[in-house]
Structures are given as structure tokens and as C-alpha cells.
Amino acid sequence: MSDQQQATQQDDQPFFNIQRVYLKDMSLEQPNSPQIFLESEAPAVEVQVNVAAAQLQEGIFEVVVTGTVTTKVQDKVAFLVEAHQAGIFDIRNVPVEQLDPLLGIACPTILYPYLRGNIADVITRAGFQAIHLSEINFQALYEQRLQAAMAEAGQQGGEGNSGIVMPDGSQARH
Fold it and tell me: Which one of 68, 88, 149, 170 is separated from 99 by 20 to 30 angstroms, measured CA to CA?
């Protein structure tokens, strides 16, 4: 086999690489401080997590995992934290049917520990006891979203979206 054939064969191999992991945005609100610190009742905690992916250019994708933690004591908001943990991933020579699961499962699994750490840190720095977010099974979350999209597409009579936003703003379908 010639060097050129070998190089071509290597260029066709599936490729996945993390280019960068970064905190894209974070906010903290404490609308009832300092009075909320005097409350003795245990707080109620609500956590929401979402995943979004966008193609930046050929083979380069940004995945963002958003976490929102709202804590209330007697219907008063103690604090609200929202963080967007992002990553840029180089993904090439991957079949289209495998791309969406990579973006919806593998990439969020890589980013989530960073999100958990950043949220726990800001809550502690705000003067509250740390809240450690539970592990998330992103495969189960992905499958739930896929089923919901298929059900919605069935009601509308069309195909479901893959969730990938292309550079021109359109959504990729598969």
C-alpha cells in the first residue's frame, strides 16, 4: 500500500476530538437576601437540564448543557442559578445516523461534570450550602427527547428534527 493510499484511508477514519470546554454563561440571583439566610425551614430545590447542539462549520460543533437550579423557602426564592457549560467538538467522518447521538449523549456526558462543579461552586460562594447535582443518564434523556420529537412529528404528519442547528439557522434532518 502506498503512502498516499494509507493517508487517504486514515483521512476517512471516524474522528472525535474535544477542542475546548468553557463556561459560556452563568448567572446567580438572590432576590430575598439577606432575609432568606434567617429562615430555618429546609429549602425546596428544583433542577432543570437541557442540551443544545449547533454546527459552527464543517465538522465543528458546539454543544451546550444548560442547568438551572431554583431553591425556595416558603415560596420565596432563596437563589436561582443558571449556567451554560459549552464545548467545541471536532467530529468528522461519522455517519449521519451516529452524529446526533454523539452530540446528544457523548458530548453532554463530557460537559456535565464541569457544569456540576461550576454550579456547586457558585452556590457555595453565594453563602448557601452546596447543592451537588445528581448524575444524569444522557442516553435515557436523549431517547426521551427522540420519542417526544417522533410523537410530535406524528401529530404534525412530518419528520422529527435531529436537534442540530446548521450555520444558516436551518435544522438538520435524518
Answer: 68
In this predicted model, what pLDDT tens digit does every residue of 37-67 receive, in sequence order? 999 999 999 999 999 999 999 999 999 999 9
Please tell me the distance from the alpha carbon of residue 117 to that of residue 26, in angstroms, as a whole number: 12
Tell me how far apart the alpha carbons of residues 104 and 141 are, in angstroms, rounded to a whole number: 9
Residue 6 covered by a domain: no
Pairwise CA distance, residues 71 & 27, whole Å: 14
Tell me whether residue 125 is exposed, middle or buried, using C-beta atoms within 10 angstroms of its C-beta: 0 to 12, 13 to 18, 19 or more. exposed
**Tell me: the pLDDT tens digits for 114-173?**
999 999 999 999 999 989 899 999 999 999 988 988 898 888 765 444 455 545 454 444
Give me the CATH number covering residue 94: 3.10.420.10
Q: Which amino acid is at 127?
A: G
Task: Specify the residue for cell string 462549520.
Answer: 57
